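Lecture notes, unit on protein representations.

Consider one protein chain, 137 amino acids long.
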Amino acid sequence: MVFLHGSGHNDMNQTLPDGKGATFVPLAQAASREGYATLRFNKRGVTDIGPVESTDPAQLNPENPYDRIQRDAAAAVRFAAGSARVDPARIVLLGHSEGTNVAANLAADPGGFGIPAPAGVVAMGVVGRDIRTLLTL
């Protein structure tokens, strides 16, 4: 199960702004208890747990940020698929908020992103508008 973050510079646990919780930790623990391997990763621009942001503007504000987010997520899926302990045909994408759009885009065009077709998609806090409208709002 590959976890895909909501918007912002989120660490691998999607730590809450007050630092008193992390939305992905209990989900990863529950998935693990059910026998799923989980992969969480720091989003581009995050260098540590917390999150601690990079000072590199190229990492914090890349060109075409949404495209970069999708390509980074696809790289995480390819990494998972390459593990000897993971069956690539059974990878599930779990997206939260903005991650629901990322998961849907990856699932809609796995070949275009160079990933195996996901076995499933879990969407939490689904984003109901296109990303451009959401950014404007």
